Amino acid sequence: MRTNELYLLDIVQAADSIAQFVAGMEEEQFVGDDLVRSAVLHKLAVIGEAAARVSSELKHSYPGIPWADIVGFRNIAVHAYFSVDWGLVWNAAVFDAPTLKCDIEAIVKTRHVPQMQVKPGR
Prior knowledge:
Protein name: DUF86 domain-containing protein
Keywords: Hydrolase, Nuclease, Nucleotide-binding, Phosphoprotein, Toxin-antitoxin system
Pfam families: HepT-like
Helix content: over 70%
Structural class: mainly alpha
Number of helices: 6
GO molecular function, one term: nucleotide binding
């Protein structure tokens, strides 16, 4: 069974990947690049899945994190793929994911979770 700490690290790593994918891009480039859009959407889904699996106790301990919204976004992304609003995905990638990453890193530090090494190419 995976722990809360591993799910939190999944969120941080996925947010890092998203930042790498969109680095130097403008929204118009993003919308026109199927490969990057698909990669970002996948990592946002990973974030949503990890957030869904974090224990209720941890979620209640950190009410400032919009857990339900994160999970809801994942559900929309996965189940309504053909009607995805790429502008919303862009905003999630460049505004929400970095903020969430900082918030989750703060939680990881307070829980004294050892940082996992990110493998090259991730």
